[in-house]
Amino acid sequence: MNLDNSGSSSPYEGDEHIESRVSNHIFHVEAAHGVPIVTSQGNFVAEQINSLLSEAVEEWPSQASEGISAEEAREFAVISAIGVKGCGKTTFFNHLFGTHLQVSSPLKRSEQEKGTKGAMMAVGQLSGSRHLLLIDTEGTDGRTSQAANNKRLERIVTLTVAVSDVILYHVWLADLGRFEAAGYGVFYTVLGEHLKIFQRDHPSKTLILFVVHDHDDGSTLEHLKKLILTDMEHIWDNVEKPNDYKTAKLSEFFDIQVVSLPHPRYRREEYEGSVAAIRDRFLGHFRRSEDYFLKREYSKELPLESFATYAEVVWSELTRSDAESGSHVISSGIPSQRELLATYQCDLSYETQLQNAMEKCQRWQNDTSRGKLIDKFGHKASSLYTEAMDNYDTSTAPYSSFQVRAQKRHSLGNLLQNQLKSLFQKQIALLQQQGLNKFKDMLLSAVAANGSISEYDQHVAMRRVDDWFIKKAEELVVPSLRLHYRLYRLEMQNALNETASKFRDSPTVQMQAMQKLEKLASRPPPKQRGVVVGVGLNAAIRPSGYGNLQMLASYNKGPHSLNVSLVNDRDVAQQEGQSDIALFRIQPTLHFDIDI
């Protein structure tokens, strides 16, 4: 098979056969054709990564893959391919992992046939292995001399160094030992930038896997590895190193492995066997072997959720450094991988704990706005603060040596304290208002009952309100945040004293006093209880006549009375046959008036 001379499809008639064999090992491949993460213009596309990883995670099975634990099933490894253009790296990626990335064709000029531009990513998983993030990069071209393009390619290489567990470097057998043809200049970037990124942490190793194409001359693999190691040691000796690493060895930071492939067209079966053998070394059942390619010591320990963030920060720093320096040398200003990871994890924990706490605080705020006191606020506030800080400490414990952890903790603590202090003050203010209203009601009740209020009654009312305030305020105290009510109690007492001093002369009190006087004045006088004895005299004078003269006179003094009547009807009475009518008659009476 003539690698990378095929345009979008390989001329090797056995490609479908190779892919069918790969499918027996591939558990799942997401976006097999790849999505751009760095465009040909040098723009980083974080949205593509987030979208791709989100879709992949949703489709990955919840159970652990065969041969690995459930915890390992959530982990991933990053494998990147770099090399010169036309070296077969993309075709090998497709054959090895079952992707369908665009294959370049040096003999054709169509933009669609020039292979990978920038950097492409696919996500997959081989049976029994961790999930894989596969990054295919644009190949270097010795014929290209554009400074901007070279900078962009250097940035892409540096990005792969920052994120990759394994870097696949492709080279033709005929180019071994030929510095320019093999594209070895890129290793000054690979080796140098690794030191800049990881030097501030414990050394993090990366596996550089050389894939030698068209190995058909009968030489041994050990011989090829010796040649490659010699070249790598020479480059390492000439890489600019920090002072602490002047005498460091290449093997402290990199493992160099070499695999080879025979010609795919003329030695088809051997080629397929070599691809299968290399694939096996990525499989989970190989993980206890020294030949396993995905050893944990190569992992950059990036959480899946922070991968896009970390990669974007690295790319932004590289772009900024290039713009400021104006040279091809990649700036050493890239934050260390663990610094960025610590920042991400501390930010994540900070946001999580703050959001959870603020949701509870908002509910309390709503209740307070409606004039409601939070039951046992002090205990609840103390528990909320302690729980949030403890959860932050636990989740960020691996990053205790980083300043960002303490900074975020301080910020989280301040925000929570300020929020809880605000709620405490609003609760206290509400309590003070309720106490003042209660005191006024007690004074008004006393005035309504008595028409006035004495200083003693005011003092008793103040004591009762003060006791009530203390009882309620005790439930608001948060000792761990130094939230106490002593000063607020003094404010309350001063407000009660001021209210009491003004209350006697207030229009309200005067109105109440006047209303009571009016009510008393409108009452009838009280009746005297006892027994009253009265004497009455009734006198009648009846001279002769026919009733044409009538007179009546009466006199009362206390319970005594005198009644005298004069009527000249004596003749009329005799004519009617009445007996003799006396000229003058008197009739005494005696009456008793008893009031109980």
TrEMBL record:
<dbReference type="GO" id="GO:0016320">
    <property type="term" value="P:endoplasmic reticulum membrane fusion"/>
</dbReference>
<keyword id="KW-0342">GTP-binding</keyword>
<keyword id="KW-0812">Transmembrane</keyword>
<dbReference type="GO" id="GO:0005525">
    <property type="term" value="F:GTP binding"/>
</dbReference>
<comment type="similarity">
    <text>Belongs to the TRAFAC class dynamin-like GTPase superfamily. GB1/RHD3 GTPase family.</text>
</comment>
<dbReference type="InterPro" id="IPR030386">
    <property type="entry name" value="G_GB1_RHD3_dom"/>
</dbReference>
<dbReference type="InterPro" id="IPR046758">
    <property type="entry name" value="Sey1/RHD3-like_3HB"/>
</dbReference>
<dbReference type="InterPro" id="IPR008803">
    <property type="entry name" value="RHD3/Sey1"/>
</dbReference>
<feature type="domain" description="GB1/RHD3-type G">
    <location>
        <begin position="132"/>
        <end position="311"/>
    </location>
</feature>
<protein>
    <submittedName>
        <fullName>GTP-binding protein</fullName>
    </submittedName>
</protein>
<dbReference type="GO" id="GO:0005783">
    <property type="term" value="C:endoplasmic reticulum"/>
</dbReference>
<dbReference type="InterPro" id="IPR027417">
    <property type="entry name" value="P-loop_NTPase"/>
</dbReference>
<dbReference type="Pfam" id="PF20428">
    <property type="entry name" value="Sey1_3HB"/>
</dbReference>
<keyword id="KW-0256">Endoplasmic reticulum</keyword>
<dbReference type="GO" id="GO:0003924">
    <property type="term" value="F:GTPase activity"/>
</dbReference>
<keyword id="KW-0472">Membrane</keyword>
<keyword id="KW-1133">Transmembrane helix</keyword>
<keyword id="KW-0378">Hydrolase</keyword>
<keyword id="KW-0547">Nucleotide-binding</keyword>
<dbReference type="Pfam" id="PF05879">
    <property type="entry name" value="RHD3_GTPase"/>
</dbReference>
